[in-house]
Specification:
The protein has five helices and no strands. It is mainly α. Helix 2 packs antiparallel against helix 3 and helix 3 runs antiparallel to helix 4. The longest helix has 25 residues.
Length: 123
């Protein structure tokens, strides 16, 4: 069963358009930060560390996916936002604190909603 699920996920990723991949990354980041906050509240710090580390990796992937040659000013602003989110995730991980994690989560959710609106406009 797990192999079928992994194959399905792999196919989903390999056949997704770039804008869909970005949405998938944002969904993953939101999911991992929510999991991390829950782990911190339950004092399951190993789980929070793993979840926040995964969220940090995703945010770095989002940052690296920016293409400044297409829209330099927009990319500069987006990079600043991603770096701020990353900083909050590192802070949450270092201090085992839900407050910076929740700040990062709120921003990630806003970026996700904005991304969905942009995708709908482009259809």
């Amino acid at each position: 069963m797990a192999n079928r699920h992994e194959a399905y996920k792999r196919t989903q990723i390999l056949t997704a358009r770039p804008e869909q991949l970005t949405l998938m990354l944002l969904d993953g980041a939101v999911r991992f930060v929510e999991k991390a906050s829950d782990c911190i509240r339950r004092e399951r710090f190993d789980g929070s560390y793993q979840a926040l580390s995964r969220a940090q990796q995703i945010v770095m992937e989002l940052l690296n996916s920016l293409r400044p040659e297409n829209a330099p000013q927009l990319c500069r602003r987006q990079a600043g936002l991603y770096l701020f989110i990353y900083q909050k995730l590192v802070e949450a991980n270092a201090h085992r604190d839900t407050e910076p994690a929740e700040q990062a989560l709120g921003l990630l959710k806003e970026v996700r909603e904005t991304w969905i609106m942009l995708m709908e406009k482009l259809r």
